[in-house]
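Sanity check

After download, print the first record. It should look like this:
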Amino acid sequence: MLYTRFSPISRNTWEVSTPAKSPKPIATITRRRNGQCAAAITADHALNREELSSLSVFMQEHERAS
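Expected structure tokens:
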């Protein structure tokens, strides 16, 4: 099981980290004006399947809420 932390930076921006691997963020998620979310993955990190899945679920939930 992967523990992923989504920390709000501002109203529409979250920093994504996995504390077990590294204190550095693995991605930043931003909700755009049209309600869709976009993820910017850290250049030196390759997402594994669990990380990608958790990002996807988080983004889908926030797109539905808008």
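If your output differs, re-run the checksum step. Summary of this record's structure: The helical segments are 49-65.
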